[in-house]
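Continuing the batch. This is chain 6 of the set; chains 1 through 5 are on the previous pages. Same settings as before, nothing changed between runs. Recording input and output for traceability.
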Amino acid sequence: MPMEETRKMSGAEAVLRCLELEGVKVAFGIPGGAIIKFYDELYKRRSFKHILVRHEQSAAHAADGYARVSGEVGVCIATSGPGSTNLVTGIATAYMDSVPLVAIVGQVATSFMGRDSFQETDIVGITLPIVKHSFKVRNFDDIYRAVRGAFYLARTGRPGPVLIELPSDVQRQEGVLKEEEISFRGYSPDGFPDLKMLLDVVKFISMAERPVILAGGGVIISKASEELIALAEKIKAPVATSLMGKGAFPEEHDLSLGMAGMHGTMAANKALCEADLIVAIGVRFSDRSIGKPVDFATSAKVIHIDYDHAEIGKNVRAHAYLAGDAKKVLREVINALGGINLSSRDNWL
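Output for chain 6:
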């Protein structure tokens, strides 16, 4: 939606205008003193549906669930101090599970910051380890970049939560909202995938006699279920999923093993233990999925496909890896695979 307004508006109205530009349809939150101007403007504009929760933690969890189901960025809103700190558990959940979420929190007026003012809490510092990024809005001119930037960061690359801290006096400041290009130095989520080990991946898959695919939440995030099914059928490999990967592969499919891990199926866990090759796609190899890393699939070569380089080799050694969006990477793998002797896998299946 293009921005056409050139009139003066309050900071609170400017935030709402930016949320409209992002196509926000619903948000979850509770009013409070440091965010009340924002709610006054929301009441006037009715920009989107607001769900009044009974506790801010519910707002964060509801926004997280909405994002998972809708595929859109979840939005939660709280006031300063106890309102913002009550969001922490939900923000942490979104961070751990790579869920796109924007948390908008009120803060005391800029002139009262650092004075132990009523309901002043360093929410940016508190949430630093569990967000992709935080924006400290300090004047009207920061608003456009903060809101547009928050949604851009939340939904691109490896998704995750972003925090916007909005002081009460900035909500009352007036100015003209100016559109600007949003970019962040060193952040290029649409870069080409890292395929330098593609030939190794093809070799490992071609030579394997007991391959298993372990699919995680990254497959769902990248909407790569079609490619996952195509790969499994092409190489005749059964598919197990992590908890986050449930739904990435149809469980009625002949190659489905169900969920792996502590609460998974015997078939999935036994197959992973006995495999000579594991193709892991968009998984983080959590302890609930694999148990002790040193005891996991000791006879298997591991191919790890993930968007985040930091996940590769973090818990389980990868003998080969491909980094990038699962949908794009799987297409490259499928195209690179030639004819494979599948008869050697009949006994395994």
